Inverse folding.
């Protein structure tokens, strides 16, 4: 049909009913027609103001990235109005507010499914597509699943922006799907004034090995695999307040898959996991604590942060999502007095394509971090621990307490073989523990060392209990190097001073004065 005839036919109908036929909110002629003599209802397109200037996606959204999500408080109110879905095949549904649903199709086949769509937090279309795909796949990884297929969902102002922009967004997503060995089956598109993009993802999961947000245990270490601050930096980028270095760092983080971290957490038998996205680290952690019925300690100075994020927060550059997130999670959080407003801003900051928050057995944490670093998950850090049982609570401190001394992931550079060597000789050249042998190549000593290594592995008695037993035995037999090494190792595992005091009391009860003198000497040195 001739374009002029098409315009005449469409506009005559719109004028007759008094409303634009493609947007009844507007009159006909609409403001665009009056200003630019363009009828988008007739398929006419608004030309770019400058063809040489790239399109800035963030100019077409109100809230960037996961900050565009509906708040936890409002979402829970809506979910409470919905009927309960009960089916024996439904292993994880909406009742626990987990990252994805898990459904058993047959005894041999269980699937994990999720959908995630949000607005752009960057201007480059291809990069936005990559970030959206990483974010969508992350929910499957958080459940311990392997994504296999995806369907794209896009909202796009097709009459205002070039077709190439929409194509580049989808191409960016496809590139990440290829990296994840995930097949794009198709998708759905909507003509929308605000750009939105994401994927519905289906994965497969092992019935006995999938991970939920409901099984964190007291004593567990908490690992965060990506730095915080994506919401703050996305807003700063929108208003031209972030440096090029900071923008590069945040886009690299958001466009990186959580695949490697997920595979390693499965290997080391994580008790619980969630990914940190639009509800902020406290929002997602509070849900984990509610479902696990535990209390978490978070140590702010151990959190990995993106460059400039804290300084920007001091300037008040954080989105309205912070207020919504605080409204939900603050009531379950106790902040230490020295936690500043800018620190709180990072804790409530809505993350886009954030990291995994993993609850791991303490005896497996160190080696899991070593492998994450070797796999390129360089920012992975221990940021806290599961303290005790409760109805779901979080304690935020600036520094880790003495009873929970830990190491930052960035300090751990040793490989697994290095760790074995460290067990036979102290890095500072101090005496070795007799339970670990002398480190000489003598065959008998090697056999003894191997036996002791096996004895200290988890079995019917957990590793924490064995470590406390080693402390008590070292004191009881008056082996200063043994006791010293196992006290230090206990502290690194998060065992409290109070627990060590009780182990020492048993040693003194069975061995008397000499054990007491060794304990007092080491306590003064190590505590």
């Amino acid at each position: 049909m001739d374009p002029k005839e098409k315009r005449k036919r469409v506009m005559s109908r719109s004028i007759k009913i008094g409303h634009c036929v493609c947007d009844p909110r507007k009159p006909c002629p609409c403001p665009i027609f009056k200003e630019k003599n363009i009828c988008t209802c007739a398929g006419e397109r608004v030309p770019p103001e400058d063809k040489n200037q790239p399109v800035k996606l963030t100019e077409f959204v109100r809230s960037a990235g996961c900050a565009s999500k509906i708040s936890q408080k409002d979402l829970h109110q809506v979910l409470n109005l919905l009927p309960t879905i009960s089916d024996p095949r439904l292993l994880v549904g909406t009742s626990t507010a987990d990252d994805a649903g898990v459904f058993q199709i047959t005894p041999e086949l269980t699937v994990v499914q999720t959908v995630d769509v949000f607005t752009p937090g960057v201007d480059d279309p291809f990069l936005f597509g990559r970030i959206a795909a990483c974010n969508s796949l992350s929910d499957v990884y958080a459940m311990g699943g392997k994504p296999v297929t995806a369907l794209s969902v896009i909202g796009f102002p097709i009459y205002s922006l070039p077709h190439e922009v929409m194509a580049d967004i989808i191409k960016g997503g496809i590139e990440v799907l290829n990296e994840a060995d995930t097949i794009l089956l198709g998708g759905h598109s909507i003509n929308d004034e605000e750009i939105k993009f994401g994927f519905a993802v289906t994965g497969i999961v092992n019935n006995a090995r999938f991970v939920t947000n409901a099984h964190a245990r007291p004593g567990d270490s908490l690992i965060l695999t990506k730095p915080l601050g994506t919401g703050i930096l996305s807003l700063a980028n929108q208003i031209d307040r972030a440096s090029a270095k900071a923008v590069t760092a945040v886009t690299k983080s958001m466009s990186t898959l959580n695949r490697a971290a997920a595979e390693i957490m499965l290997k080391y038998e994580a008790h619980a996991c969630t990914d940190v996205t639009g509800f902020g680290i406290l929002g997602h952690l509070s849900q984990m604590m509610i479902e696990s019925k535990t209390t978490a300690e978070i140590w702010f100075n151990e959190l990995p942060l993106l460059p400039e994020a804290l300084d920007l927060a001091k300037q008040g550059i954080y989105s309205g999502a912070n207020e919504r997130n605080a409204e939900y999670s603050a009531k379950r959080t106790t902040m230490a007095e020295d936690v500043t407003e800018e620190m709180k801003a990072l804790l409530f900051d809505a993350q886009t394509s954030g990291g995994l928050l993993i609850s791991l057995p303490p005896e497996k944490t160190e080696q899991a971090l070593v492998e994450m670093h070797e796999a390129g998950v360089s920012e992975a850090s221990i940021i806290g621990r599961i303290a005790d049982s409760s109805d779901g609570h979080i304690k935020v401190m600036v520094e880790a307490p003495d009873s929970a001394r830990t190491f930052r992931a960035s300090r751990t550079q040793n490989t697994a073989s290095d760790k074995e060597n460290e067990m036979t000789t102290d890095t500072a050249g101090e005496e070795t523990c007799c339970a670990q042998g002398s480190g000489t190549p003598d065959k008998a000593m090697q056999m003894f060392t191997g036996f002791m290594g096996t004895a200290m592995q988890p079995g019917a008695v957990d590793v924490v209990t064995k470590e406390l037993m080693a402390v008590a035995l070292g004191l009881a037999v008056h082996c200063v190097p043994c006791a010293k090494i196992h006290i230090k190792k206990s502290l690194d595992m998060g065992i409290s001073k109070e627990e060590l005091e009780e182990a020492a009391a048993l040693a003194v009860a069975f061995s008397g004065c000499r054990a007491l003198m060794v304990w007092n000497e080491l306590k003064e040195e190590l505590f």
Summary: The chain has a mean pLDDT of 82. The two ends are 85 Å apart (CA to CA). The domain at 66-70+82-408 is CATH 3.90.650.10 (Phosphoribosyl-aminoimidazole Synthetase; Chain A, domain 2). The first helix runs from residue 3 to 17.
